[in-house]
Amino acid sequence: MLTLNLIPQQFKRELALHSVYVVLKKFFILLFAVLLMCSVSLIFARIYLKEKLHELTLQAQAISFRTHDIKEKVTTLNTLLKKTRSSLESTQAWAPVLTALYERIPSDITVNDITLTSEKQLYRIQIEGTSPSRDAYLEFEQSIKKLPFIKTFTSPIQNILSTGENSFSLTLLITPLPLQ
Questions:
Q1: Using CA atoms, how far apart are residues 145 and 167, in angstroms rounded to an integer?
Q2: What is the reported pTM?
Q3: pLDDT at res. 45
């Protein structure tokens, strides 16, 4: 059997090149389409991620502002609590002291003035009044000296010079009683 090849060799080569060109052209068009879709999707992904990053940044800033305000309030509250605690610890409980003093005042002694002062850990009570006699004053003085919280008792000599009715003034230094 004999085959006749009537197509010239040059034309065969051109047909082969043309078919390779068509295949390469389709390949590059397909590659270009795939790359174009990938680049568009990457651009959209980048825009989406930028928006999310911006949103997260705003949320983080809002949270940090809120936590800063809360930290500031907590610090202020802690400072107030420390000041309150130190005030309570350094404050003298005057009510039990005054009640005990009142119970020791005899009915014939008249107290005109009671002054309470406190300086750091020094608590002072000054009492001024009148007594009908020296004996009544001395009895009052002895009953006050027996109180357990009296640290120092100061009474001027003028308080006992007069045998009749006389004015008196005395100063008491007391040990601090804690608040209850």
A1: 19
A2: 0.50
A3: 95
State the residue range of the domain holding 35: 8-90
The two three-digit tokens of residue 1, written as one number: 């059997």
pLDDT of residue 28: 95
Q: Looking at the structure, do residues 130 and 165 belong to the same domain, yes or no?
A: yes
How is 16-61 classified by DSSP, letter by letter?
A: HHHHHHHHHHHHHHHHHHHHHHHHHHHHHHHHHHHHHHHHHHHHHH
**Token digits for 129?**
């009044």
Q: Do 107 and 146 belong to one domain?
A: yes
pLDDT tens, position by position, 102-125: 888 888 888 899 888 877 777 888
Q: In this structure, are residues 106 and 141 in contact, taking their beta carbons and an 8 Å threshold?
A: no
The last residue of one of the domains, among 37, 71, 90, is: 90
Token couple for 174:
């007391």
With vertex at residue 136, the alpha carbon angle to CA 131 and CA 139, rounded to the nearest 5 degrees, is 130
N- to C-terminal Cα separation, the chain = 129
Number of domains in the chain: 2
Q: What are phi and psi of 105, to 5 degrees?
A: -85, 120
Whether residue 158 is contained in a domain is answered as: yes
